[in-house]
Automatic annotation (TrEMBL):
Listed Basic and acidic residues bias regions: 38-60
Listed Pfam families: RVT_2
Domain Reverse transcriptase Ty1/copia-type: 153-358
Name of the gene this protein is made from: RE1
Protein name as it appears in the record: RE1 protein
Length: 655
């Protein structure tokens, strides 16, 4: 093999090149027909390899001339899609000299560095390999005529893509244009499922996915550009019928998802009733119970998956049907989140690289001196940019930013310079405090959920109340008052949608929403473990699931939930909500009380220091306390103070 350069490229001249016979023209440039674009006449012939010759065979002179190559040529491997041929993620062109053009077809290989092909085996292709990236490159060489050389020199670096004007679709308002996006809850449960089974976490990307969707039966006509009219010898007024997916078509993502769903179902995948982009590979166990071999999440044309050997075999059939542009195991970036799987099966993920790329807002000194001054239109644009960029990270990885960015979002309509300054400070805080989350391989049957719920009453400048929810995955140790490992699953920080009149009312609203979120997550997880559960009877399913916990720091709400007496509140609506969330606790859910300093969701309700939550996430552990013992100690101290106060009053009266 040739030497590997720093950029991961192999020098093709150091490898023996194949002796190829004259091949038919596989690349043709036709400026009159396609307007400075490359047209592939026979893509199959470009990708097929020529058979090896025996060592003693003579090579004709004309073949030697056509296969000649420069003494040294370093093959430039594209690093992104911009340099790929016609947007194809598998092919690109190389120009070793003025008389030749090489089309390079990338193929992934599972060969490790110790088992690379020998020089004799490499006659058919050039191998580009580094410890991180291994690609096999098939080479086809072709001599160019003088006219073709001129055409290629003009077309080099250019690409074209036919895009239809989707906004002119006659069924624009009635056609479904949903895009297949994986929900956050589903993604987190897929990570937990993969980690619990200690499977390999794999990410893949399907090339030209939107072009592979089947049509929906509508007869759509398009007016082709002039170049295509000339190439197809079309008459004035002739149209082309659009039979399937196309770039620009408003329902292209939906058609692609329907096509992919049909393919997955033909491979025995089952769609989740909780998230349309989540699929499980299920077979029947000999004892009659379903067996889940793996899970797959689809996000547009990307996928996140993990499973056993049978699951990988079925996925290979999917890869044979659809061409994958990328296929990464163990460490990759998916939807802007960097994932890394460790040897024990645990999965670490963060968005630090994404946060580092966010540029802060430039605020002139004279504007900083006017914090109460309203923002100008360009400054409002900067505030929206910062808020949107930070919010995307706060939703997926660092929960400590959620409340602060949420309050900045609500301030945009009446934003001032001080809000832009706060946004810049929040960005600096996010970059300075690296938050990395970890999914731990709990055994499936031991995974339990614990929800921290908190609320703040009239805590913002506009006197709005906010609620915060943090749902973590843990095991039985949490309910046994032992130090337990916690895995953040979902979190939220939002304004309470209605006016509340007291702290108790705000806490009860937050508890109701939090227990609903946790119940849905628990039901989803039970289905992911055993798809035969009857989700039409959620109460029965959750009663048979591992016990969950709902944690609050509001003593009044805790008393209402744990006492059997009918709650008595000044607000009748709050009283009804207390009865509702007390009923939800019957779904094998335990109510817990903690001190305010131990409430992990506290920083999700107001602008405050988030260092305690970050420390807990960094350690990955949380230790609850026996609330009965703590409350008894508090009651004992209160009685002692009352006795001391009474003794002091008696002594004063006697004096």
């Amino acid at each position: 093999m040739g030497p590997v350069t720093e950029c991961g490229e192999t020098r093709a001249a150091d490898l023996p090149l194949p002796n190829l016979p004259p091949s038919p023209e596989v690349l043709e440039y036709s400026p009159d027909a396609l307007g400075n674009t490359l047209k592939r006449e026979d893509s199959r012939s470009m990708k097929c390899r020529q058979p090896l010759r025996d060592a003693g065979d003579e090579v004709p002179d004309h073949e030697m001339a056509s296969a000649s190559a420069p003494e040294f040529y370093e093959v430039p491997v594209p690093e992104d899609d911009d340099d790929l041929l016609l947007g194809d993620t598998e092919c690109f062109l190389a120009f070793p000299d003025q008389r030749q053009v090489w089309e390079m077809t990338l193929r992934e290989t599972q060969a490790d560095m110790d088992n690379l092909p020998s020089a004799q085996q490499a006659l058919e292709y050039v191998l580009l390999a580094t410890p991180e990236r291994k690609k096999r490159v098939e080479v086809r060489m072709q001599d160019l005529s003088e006219g073709e050389r001129d055409q290629f020199s003009q077309a080099k670096g250019k690409e074209a893509r036919l895009v239809v004007l989707g906004f002119e679709d006659p069924g624009l308002n009635d056609t479904p244009n949903d895009a297949p996006t994986l929900g956050k809850d589903a993604r987190q449960l897929i990570l937990q499922k993969v980690a619990s089974n200690r499977s390999k976490l794999i990410n893949f990307d399907i090339s030209t996915a939107f072009l592979q969707g089947r049509g929906d039966g509508r007869k759509l006509g398009i007016h082709p550009p002039e170049e295509i009219r000339q190439a197809l010898d079309m008459k004035p007024g002739d149209q082309c019928q659009l039979m399937g997916g196309a770039y620009g078509r408003i329902d292209a993502p939906f058609l692609w998802f329907k096509t992919l769903k049909g393919t997955l179902e033909s491979l025995s995948f089952t769609q989740s009733p909780f998230d349309a982009c989540t699929f499980s590979l299920i077979t029947q166990h000999p004892q009659g119970r379903p067996k889940v071999h793996g899970v797959l999440g689809i996000h547009m044309d990307d996928g996140l998956r993990g499973g056993d050997s049978y699951f990988r075999m079925v996925i290979q059939k999917l890869r044979d049907k659809y061409s994958c542009g990328s296929y990464d195991e163990g460490e990759f970036t998916f939807t802007g989140i960097h994932f890394r799987q460790w040897d024990d099966g645990s999965i670490e993920y963060d968005q630090q690289e994404y946060l580092d790329r966010i540029q802060p807002a430039h605020i002139p000194r004279n504007r900083r001196c006017e914090p109460e001054s309203p923002l100008r239109p360009d400054e409002v644009h900067e505030l929206r940019r910062l808020n949107g960029s930070i919010q995307y990270a706060a939703v997926h990885t660092p929960p400590d930013l959620a409340a602060k960015v949420g309050m900045l979002q609500s301030a945009v309509p009446k934003a001032k310079i001080l809000h832009l300054i706060e946004a810049s400070r929040l960005l600096h805080e996010a970059k300075s405090n690296h938050v990395s989350l970890m999914t731990v391989p709990f055994p499936e049957q031991h995974v339990a959920f614990c929800t921290f719920s908190d609320a703040s009453f009239a805590s913002s400048r506009d006197s709005n109340s906010y609620q915060g929810t943090l749902v973590v995955a843990t095991d039985w140790r949490m309910l046994a008052n032992e130090k337990a490992v916690i895995v953040p699953m979902v979190w939220s920080s939002r304004k309470i949608a209605r006016v509340v009149r007291s702290t108790l009312s705000a806490e009860v609203v937050s508890l109701c929403n939090s227990v609903d979120r946790m119940s849905c997550l628990r039901l989803f997880w039970e289905w992911m473990k055993d798809p035969s559960v009857d989700i039409s009877q959620p109460d029965e399913v959750l009663k048979g699931a591992p016990q969950a916990a709902l944690v609050t720091d509001c003593k009044s709400a805790y008393d209402i939930a744990t006492k059997t007496a009918v709650p008595s509140c000044s607000e009748l609506r709050t009283q009804l909500e207390c009865l509702l969330f007390r009923e939800r606790l019957l779904e094998n859910c335990q109510m817990r009380w903690v001190h305010s300093k131990a409430m992990l969701a506290d920083c999700l309700t107001k602008t405050m220091d988030s260092s305690e939550l970050r420390r807990c996430l960094a350690s990955g552990q949380y230790s609850p306390y026996d609330e009965d013992k703590v409350l008894a100690e508090r009651q004992g101290r209160r009685q002692s103070l009352e006795w001391l106060r009474k003794d002091a009053e008696d002594a004063s009266a006697a004096f």
